[in-house]
Amino acid sequence: MVECAMRPGTMSVCKIFHVNEESKQLVDIISDDGKTWTKVIARNPKSLSALSSGNASYGARSILDQAEDYLTCAKLYPCMYLSPKVVFEFVSGIEETLANKLKAKGIIVKGTILPDSKKHEEINDSYESSDEEIFERCQVTMEDVSQCIEDHIDINILNLDVTAMMAYVSNMTNGFCHYVFKQDVLTQQAAWEAERPVKPILEKLFEGKTLISCKTAWYNFEKIVETLGGPMEKKRTADLKELVTVYEDDYGGQNDYPRQNLKVRGHVRLRSKIIFNFGHRLKALTVSANEGFVRAAAQQGVTYATFIHESRALTEGKEATAEKIL
Fold it and tell me: pLDDT below 70 — which residues of the chain?
């Protein structure tokens, strides 16, 4: 498995996913930006066929059982709303009948396809450790995956986070970035905005898309604008409201197990969990500057379809005390 894990495109090795409260699934190799899960099998082909034919001791799990486990888990952890492809790679080969059974289930089979042996003999081998043994000895590593909108043009619904709506209506992103503010963070954002304007990016992203928001996101956004926003920012908020459909937080049904059990701690705040889960249920791309939440959720094994942009604050109310750059 070491050789397979060192191939280009490998993201994680021996990654553990929670299927429910009682069971976990270990995935040998994750690659292709999370779109491919690979299990590496080095057992004797005859042993695999014998076990899959029921010629084994009670309780022993066949490769067909393991295929079902992988496929079930893959449905719980979609990548851009598509279940990862499941690849079973047989280092020592696999007999034809068993390979066909796996393919019928939706498994991609790699390795030499061998003729069926006339008689399946139960053969003990020690090439492949059990999932339980690997679970005990491996270190789980996480790599954050940035997901780019250009790779997913088929998603037509955008879920707007509070940070996205603030960036859209801010005076800073609407032609008023040439200021030195008393607050260093605003001055830094203004300099970034002059170099890398955010509004054109959002406008291009919004073109032809359905814009949605949950009540928690919209309520918090409106509250911030009412408290800190200036007249022009409030006017842009009213205009944006005409473009966005606001739904109840629980719209779209129940969360799946991984997102329902995402622990609220650190950068995973309850508000963000509600907003991102809402977008996931509606198979939307969540537009946000909250990269901290995305990273923290990924560390718990939960990923979201996101478009991350730079953060921009409301600044119209701060312009009176700022120094304008001529």
Answer: 1-5, 54-60, 118-153
The CA distance from 92 to 267, in Å, is 45
Please give the Cα distance from 61 to 26 (Å, whole number): 15
pTM of the model: 0.66
Q: Which amino acid is at 261?
A: N
Q: Are strands 36-41 and 24-31 parallel, antiparallel or unpaired?
A: antiparallel
Residue 47 · residue 36 · CB < 8 Å: no
Residues 225-256 pLDDT 10s: 999 999 999 999 999 999 999 999 999 999 98
CB-based burial label for 299 (10 Å; 0-12, 13-18, 19+): middle
- Multiple choice CATH, 149-324, 3.40.190.120, 3.40.50.1010, 3.40.50.300, 3.40.50.1100: 3.40.50.1010
Distance from C-alpha of 63 to C-alpha of 86, rounded to nearest angstrom: 13
Please say whether the beta carbons of 107 and 67 come within 8 A: yes
Distance CA 38, CA 107 (A): 10
Cα(270)–Cα(268) distance, integer angstroms: 7
Distances (CA, A) of 285 to 46, 61, 201: 46, 38, 15
Q: What is the third-level CATH fold of 2-137?
A: Trna Endonuclease; Chain: A, domain 1 (3.40.1350)
3-class SS at 213? strand
Domain ranges in the chain?
2-137, 149-324
